[in-house]
Design goal:
This protein is α/β, with parallel strands linked by helices and 160 residues long. The protein has a single domain (3-154), classed as Rossmann fold (3-Layer(aba) Sandwich). The chain has helices at residues 31-39, 71-80, 101-115, 130-138, and strands at 3-6, 13-14, 45-46, 59-67, 90-93, 122-127, 143-145. Helix 3 (101-115) runs parallel beside helix 4.
């Protein structure tokens, strides 16, 4: 089976209306603002890409830096847009994981490679953040930059 890995926020979910909540803060990460940011995802417009040229038999795994407690909100967003990831296809960050997105997603991908599928089965890895695309490429995977808005300024290099 062929696999596609796909980020969500700013990759297929337009978070432009809420991204101001997580722009850089001189005092560090404001977790209350990240909470508001994640809760507001239900208002995102959808810009789906998984079907672009891939046969229906391909399995799309969504890998997000969104913490696990927001799973129901994210699933509601998918359903509002006529989609619902199959079982075990939505990979969210454990609540205790405070690593930056690159390290967190790397750990998720390595776990998937060790337990669920082979690297040669992965045909595309989409993310809006260039450093995550580079991480995919460092792992020998086909990392592809895909952003609704190409304004990476709003993410902290060491933040979620």
């Amino acid at each position: 089976m062929k696999i596609v890995l796909c980020d969500i926020d700013n990759c297929i979910s337009d978070d432009g209306h809420r991204v101001h909540l997580i722009q850089d803060h001189p005092s560090g990460i404001d977790w209350a603002k990240y909470h508001a940011y994640h809760k507001a995802c239900v208002r995102d417009k959808a810009d789906f890409i998984p079907e672009m040229g891939f046969p229906r038999a391909y399995q799309v795994h969504f890998i997000s830096g969104m913490p696990e407690p927001y799973r129901e909100i994210r699933l509601k967003w998918f359903m509002m847009h006529g989609r619902k990831p199959g079982p075990n296809l939505l990979h969210l960050r454990p609540m205790s994981d405070r690593r930056n997105s690159v390290d967190s997603k790397r750990a998720t991908v390595i776990h998937l490679l060790e337990t669920r599928f082979d690297p040669e089965d992965i045909v595309a890895c989409y993310d809006d953040r260039r450093e995550i695309v580079e991480m995919y490429q460092e792992l020998g995977l086909p990392g592809i930059h895909r952003a609704i808005r190409d304004d990476e300024y709003h993410y902290r290099a060491t933040g979620p």
